[in-house]
Specification:
The chain is α+β, with helices and mostly antiparallel strands. The chain has 3 domains: 97 residues, no CATH class; 123 residues, Sandwich (Jelly Rolls), CATH 2.60.120.1440; 72 residues, Phage tail protein beta-alpha-beta fold, CATH 3.55.50.30. The protein contains 7 helices and 20 strands. The strands form 4 sheets. Strands 3, 4, 5, 6, 7, 8, 9, 10, 11, 12, 13, 14 and 15 form a 13-stranded mixed sheet that branches. Strand 4 and strand 5 form a beta hairpin. Helix 1 packs across helix 3 and helix 2 crosses helix 3. The longest helix is centred in the first third of the chain and has 17 residues.
Length: 321
C-alpha cells in the first residue's frame, strides 16, 4: 500500500531531517558541515526519504519558515522544555507530514485526565513538590502529567526519567503509569525510565506493586532493578551502584554499552549526536560529567577506539578510529 505525504515518519529520522533542513536553509553551513549532511543522506535510505518528503512539503507550501534565518535561536528554542516536540510537530505539519506518537510525547491508553504537566528541556534537571507532599525529580528531556483528583494520586511518565519520593499514605496508593504498565506505592522512593519499548524501574526505598499492561501484578522488593514490557518482567536484578548518579550531574557507567551512554548524552546536548552502529556495543566504564558533554566526549575518545567528528555547533558524528 502506498504511503502518502501524511504518513507517519520515524521519530529519530524525522528529527534529524528537520534539524538538517533548518541548518541548511539558514545559509550558515560550512563545507565540512555540508559534507556531513551528504554523508548522513547516503548512510540510510530512510534519511533521504525523510528529507525528500520534507522538501516536497515545503515546496507545496511555496515558502519555508526557516530560509535565511539563523539556526541558533531556532535550535535553542527546540531544546527548551516542550520546545522539541512542539517545533517538530509544527514543522512537519507545515509540510503536511506527521510524527509518530512518542516524539509528540503522547502515550496511548491513558484513562485519566492530565490536570498538570511538568517537563524539563535539554541538559535540565528539576525537582517539584506535588500536591500530596510527594517529590518528583525529572532528568533532562523528561515529561510527566499529574492528576490529583477524586482522592487519587496519579502520575503519567510520557518520556525520560524520574525519581519519585512518595509521601506515605496507606489508604491512597500513589499510581505511576508508563507506556508499559502501572506502578503502585503507598510510600517509598523509586526511579523510572521510559525506554522506546520497555520501562526500567528501580526501587530505591520500600517495596511496590508492578502491573504490566497485559500481565499479572507482582511485588518488587527494595533495591531491585526491573525491566518490563506491557506483558512481563523481562529482567530483574539487584540495583547497580551509580544508577542514581544523574541526580548529582554524573553518568556512572559500569560495563555499559556505548550506545546507551550516547543515548544519555543526547538529552544533555543541543543538536544531533550520531553513533556508528558498529560501535554501539563497545563497553564503557567510568564517571562522566553530564553537564559538560564536550568533556565527556573527549574522555570517551581517549578511552575507546572512536573518533568524535564535529561539523558545526550542532552536529557530532562518532565513528571508528
Amino acid at each position: 500500500m502506498s504511503r502518502g505525504a501524511g504518513a507517519v515518519l520515524e521519530d529519530s529520522v524525522a528529527e534529524e531531517a528537520v534539524l538538517w533542513m533548518v541548518r541548511l536553509q539558514s545559509g550558515e553551513v560550512a563545507s565540512a558541515e555540508r559534507h556531513a549532511f551528504e554523508v548522513w543522506l547516503a548512510t540510510d535510505p530512510r534519511h533521504a526519504a525523510a528529507f525528500s518528503r520534507i522538501q516536497k512539503g515545503l515546496g507545496a507550501a511555496q515558502s519555508s519558515p526557516w530560509r535565511g534565518r539563523s539556526s541558533a535561536p531556532i535550535l535553542q528554542a527546540i531544546n527548551a522544555p516542550s520546545g522539541r516536540r512542539t517545533f517538530l510537530r509544527n514543522a512537519l505539519a507545515f509540510g503536511g507530514l506527521a510524527l509518530s506518537i512518542s516524539v509528540l510525547g503522547r502515550t496511548a491508553g491513558v484513562s485519566w485526565p492530565s490536570v498538570g504537566e511538568l517537563e524539563t528541556g535539554t541538559a535540565e534537571r528539576r525537582t517539584w513538590q506535588l500536591a500530596d507532599g510527594s517529590h518528583v525529580q525529572l532528568n533532562a528531556r523528561s515529561r510527566v502529567a499529574t492528576a490529583f483528583v477524586d482522592n487519587q494520586r496519579r502520575l503519567q511518565l510520557y518520556q525520560g526519567e524520574l525519581v519519585l519520593d512518595v509521601a506515605k499514605d496507606s489508604r491512597t496508593p500513589f499510581t505511576l503509569r508508563t507506556a508499559q504498565g502501572v506502578i503502585s506505592s503507598t510510600g517509598g522512593r523509586l526511579m523510572v525510565r521510559q525506554n522506546a519499548d520497555a520501562t526500567c524501574l528501580s526501587t530505591l526505598e520500600g517495596s511496590l506493586r508492578l502491573t504490566p499492561g497485559k500481565g499479572p501484578s507482582i511485588t518488587i522488593e527494595p533495591q531491585r532493578s526491573v525491566l518490563f514490557n506491557d506483558r512481563v518482567v523481562v529482567e530483574q536484578q539487584a540495583m547497580r551502584k551509580g544508577e542514581t548518579a544523574w541526580l548529582s550531574g554524573w553518568l556512572e557507567a559500569r560495563n555499559q554499552p556505548l550506545g546507551e551512554v550516547v543515548d544519555t548524552l543526547r538529552t544533555y546536548r543541543r543538536g544531533i549526536v550520531r553513533l556508528d552502529n558498529s560501535l554501539a556495543s563497545l563497553s564503557v566504564s567510568g564517571l562522566y560529567p553530564l553537564d559538560n558533554s564536550d568533556q565527556t566526549l573527549e574522555m570517551l575518545e581517549q578511552q575507546l577506539p572512536i573518533r568524535v567528528n564535529r561539523f558545526g555547533p550542532y552536529w557530532i558524528s562518532i565513528e571508528r578510529a
